[in-house]
Design goal:
Blueprint: E1 5-9, H1 16-30, E2 36-40, H2 46-53, E3 58-62, H3 79-84, E4 89-92, H4 95-100, H5 105-117, E5 121-126, H6 130-134, H7 138-150, H8 155-158, E6 162-165, H9 179-197, E7 206-209, H10 217-221, E8 228-231, H11 238-249
Parallel strand pairs: 1-2, 1-8, 2-3, 3-4, 4-5, 5-6, 6-7, 7-8
Helix pairs in contact: 1-2, 1-11, 5-7, 7-9
This protein binds phosphoenolpyruvate (PEP).
Phosphoenolpyruvate binds at residues 9, 11, 94, 166, 171-172, 209-212, 230-234.
């Protein structure tokens, strides 16, 4: 059975005082659970949240990283820096990065390689727009994004990915994919993974992201190929986020 993982994507939210309360409540709420939990927080708060998570079972993640190793790239943050401040994970290729920052599949691959070279686990996001879904293009788009990453990795590196299916139309809209819709895409992703890494594909967590909340989490996690979630809005509410973590653990 695949590892279970719930990752929070705080996006551009947080404050020193608010983070302290939110992180403390999440640490307490998930203390006895078996599933993996990771908080992906804005760069300025990595050190603060990292210290709040010390001695907890929760991992620290960033939301992006530079495709470059080091040097004259003003404003960028390298994989080595993320590792240095205690990150275990980093989100790569989120649709908001692809859309607002023009991140191509090639840039996503470069970032995945940088992350892995530094010892970070990339949480790689793939997903289709509403227009692409309506045109019947979902599988082609999602598997194309996946192949663009697989194509640049050797088998060992392909086994060290966490993949997140995030239909763009479901992100932040309150309109989650139905469990059946999400499962259909997850099954295709699992098939592509199996073709690439064999039976080990069954152990790798495939996350769903897009308006996951305390009410819909259980039905999503009941699907055979949905092993966890990447959670945006609901991760800012400790009670809702902990409920989602409990739902994945109780599957
Ligand atoms: C996300 O930010 O990746 C996300 C899935 O957001 P939300 O849960 O708010 O839809």
């Amino acid at each position: 059975m695949a590892r279970k993982l719930v990752a929070a994507n705080w996006k551009m939210n947080g404050s020193v005082s608010g983070n302290a309360e939110l992180a403390a409540r999440v640490v307490e709420g998930v203390a006895s659970l078996a599933s993996e939990v990771v908080l992906c927080v804005p760069f300025p708060y990595l050190v603060q949240v990292g210290s709040l998570l010390e001695h907890s079972r929760i991992g620290l993640g960033a939301q992006d990283l530079s495709e470059h190793e080091a040097g004259a790239y003003t404003g960028e943050v390298s994989a080595a820096m993320l590792k240095d401040v205690g990150c275990s994970h980093v989100v790569v290729g989120h649709s908001e990065r692809r859309k607002y920052h023009g991140e191509s599949d090639a840039v996503v691959l470069a970032k995945v390689r940088r992350a892995q070279a530094a010892g970070l686990v990339p949480i790689v996001c793939v997903g289709e727009s509403r227009e692409q879904r309506e045109a019947g293009d979902t599988e082609r788009v999602v598997l194309g994004q996946l192949e663009a990453v697989f194509g640049g990795l050797d088998d060992a590196a392909a086994r060290r990915l966490v993949l997140a299916y995030e239909p763009i139309w479901a992100i932040g809209t309150g309109l989650a994919a139905t469990p059946e819709m999400a499962q259909a895409v997850h099954a295709s992703i699992r098939g592509a993974l199996r073709a690439r890494v064999g039976d080990e594909a069954d152990d790798l967590p495939l996350l769903y992201g897009g308006s996951v909340n305390a009410d819909n989490a259980q039905a999503l996690f009941a699907m055979p190929d949905i092993d966890g979630a990447l959670v945006g809005g609901a991760s800012l509410d400790a009670e809702a986020f902990v409920s989602i973590c409990i739902a994945v653990s109780g599957r």
